[in-house]
Every structure is written in C-alpha cells, then in structure tokens.
C-alpha cells in the first residue's frame, strides 16, 4: 500500500506519522532513540495515547464549562463494554429492585407467595441488563475502535439510561409500541 494511505488512515497527525517513520528507520539502522518513545505496532493497533491507563469506574466528570475539569476517555473496546454493562446493570437492576419492592408493598397480605418476587425480579433484571448492556457495549466498542475515536465516560452511562428507558417503555401494553 502507498505511503499516503498509511499516513491518512492510521495516524491522526503528521507528527505521529513522522515518529512512526523514525521508528522504522531506527530498526533499519537510523536513530534508535525514537524506538523507545513510540511503538509502531502499538500506535497502529490502538488510538490510545502512549501511557494511557483506563480510568476507574465510574469516572464521570462535569463537562461544563469545557476544558475546566479533567476529562476521562475510553479507548479499548473491552473497557467500553465493561463500563456499558456496569451502568446497565446498575440502572436496570435498580428499576427491577424498585418494582419488586413496590410489588411486595402492594401484595403484603399474600405473604406466602410474595417472598419469591424480589429474587425473581432481581434475577430477571440482572439477566436483561447483562444481555442488553453486552450487546450495546460491544457495538459501541466496535464502532469507536473502527473510527479510532475516543469515548467519553459519559457515553456508557447514557446508553445505560437508554437501555433502562427502553425497558420501561416496553413494559406498557400499547398497540404499536415496542
């Protein structure tokens, strides 16, 4: 493939391309000091900056005003999947727990059968959250990795909220609904 193809598809700036070229020249006998600064293979396979560490969960930050707070970003599809599943488990599990408690309060006179409601709702909600969070997280991770994008830690939270709202909307028996 041509040099221009690699320059425009794999590197965000001309400086990154020049550093990668120096690394290759260092392997072929050129200046080897640049080889320690940047690995060509690491730069091609990941859009993460050198020295990047995954932020701890939840790592939400206040985005306004822009540039004031420290921003946290996700680059690895596995981290994107993990954050999305965690947020979906928390939010969908919380909704199922609230509805189970509400059912227990409403049906307190039927105490012989109502005890099964809480564990059943928690198990069903956990399974739904795990499946929907994994599907959405895998799709998000694939799209962001394919485009070499950085993902704010707010995006998995927003998709957890969307999964929860879809669950709530689909619980209503509406003709033409979900």
Summary?
The chain is mostly helical and 178 residues long. The chain contains 7 helices and 2 strands, in the order αααβαααβα.
Q: Top keywords for this entry?
A:
mainly alpha, elongated
Distance between the termini: 47 Å
Q: What's the β-strand tally?
A: 2
Percent of residues in β-strands: under 5%
* Helix percentage: 55-70%
Largest sheet: 2 strands, antiparallel
Number of domains: 2
What features would you describe in this structure?
The protein is an all-alpha fold and 178 residues long. The chain has two domains: 3-45, no CATH class; 73-170, no CATH class. The chain is built from seven helices and two strands. Strands 1-2 form a two-stranded antiparallel ribbon. Helix 4 (77-106) packs antiparallel against helix 6 (117-146) and helix 6 crosses helix 7 (154-170). The radius of gyration is 23 Å and the shape is elongated. The model is unreliable at 4-9, 27-36 and 38-43 (pLDDT under 50).
């Amino acid at each position: 493939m041509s040099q221009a193809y690699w320059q425009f598809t794999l590197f965000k700036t001309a400086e990154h391309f020049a550093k990668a070229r120096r690394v290759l020249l260092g392997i072929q006998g050129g200046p080897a000091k640049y080889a320690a600064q940047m690995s060509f293979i690491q730069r091609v396979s990941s859009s993460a900056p050198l020295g990047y560490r995954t932020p701890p969960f939840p790592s939400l930050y206040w985005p306004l005003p822009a540039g004031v707070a420290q921003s946290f970003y996700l680059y690895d599809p596995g981290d994107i999947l993990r954050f999305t599943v965690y947020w979906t488990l928390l939010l969908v599990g919380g909704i199922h727990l609230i509805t189970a408690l509400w059912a227990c309060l409403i049906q307190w006179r039927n105490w012989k059968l109502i005890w099964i409601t809480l564990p059943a709702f928690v198990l069903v909600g956990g399974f739904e959250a795990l499946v929907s969070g994994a599907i959405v997280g895998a799709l998000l991770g694939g799209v962001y990795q394919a485009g070499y994008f950085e993902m704010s830690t707010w995006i998995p939270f927003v998709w957890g909220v969307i999964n929860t709202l879809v669950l709530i909307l689909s619980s209503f028996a509406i003709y033409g609904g979900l």
